[in-house]
Amino acid sequence: MNSRQRRGVILLLLSVVCALGAFVGVLSVISDVKSKVGPEVTAYQIKSDVAPYTPLTAGQFEKIKMPKRWLSGNAVTDLRQIEGKIAVNTLRQGSLLQTDMIVDQPALKPGQQEVAIMIDAATGVAGKITAGATVNVYATFTGARQGDPSESKIIVTNAQVIDVGKITALDPSSSDKTTQQPTDAVPITFALSTLDAQRITYAESFAQRVRLALVAPGSATTVPDKDRTYELANDK
After folding, report:
1. For the whole prediction, is pTM greater than 0.90?
2. Which end of the chain is more exposed for a tag (fewer CB within 10 A), N or C?
3. Domain check: are 90 and 130 in the same one?
4. Which parts of the chain fold into alpha helices (H)?
5. Residue 65 is part of which domain span?
6. Residue 202's pLDDT band (cuts 50, 70, 90)
7. Does position 17 have pLDDT exceeding 80, yes or no?
8. Is residue 26 part of a domain?
């Protein structure tokens, strides 16, 4: 073996040693990263925005993998946790689903009953009110006698909505054109006490118009009795 061949062998051996060193270094880095990151677990990401009070289904989320140490303690890791739940606030696309974003769907409490009435689809709901929402119910009445002023009354405060039906076209022949009755309505089901159920069904039967006012999530509205009736003439 001449000197040129010996130099070639030496260079080849050095190249092999360097390659082995680099490989060991890469393995060391990977091992170090794994030790810092830790094992991966399942989490769920929101596919697209979910409106408040919307009942949750598996199709609204996609499964992802991420390091366990980076996942918050209240992250949802099993979609069985969303069964019977609704969104508290708007769930934004790309966000990780967490248990504090969802609550149980509302159910009847002792002393409550389900009452459903038809609400004008345009002015009473407008797509903003869904199951789980809290609303105040307003009704407008004409004067009891000719010449008496019309009144707007708050019939029920903090009514719990437990279901919103599909828009229904009302029979045009049954509408009174002089009172501008709605042509489309939505059945809204409430969980109410006996007295509030009577109030809301009375309003549906005798009021010119019934409207719903959405109450912000997590808040409640208390209206004094003196402020429950409004007349234009008394507005100062």
Report:
1. no
2. C
3. no
4. 3-37, 194-206
5. 40-104
6. very high
7. no
8. no
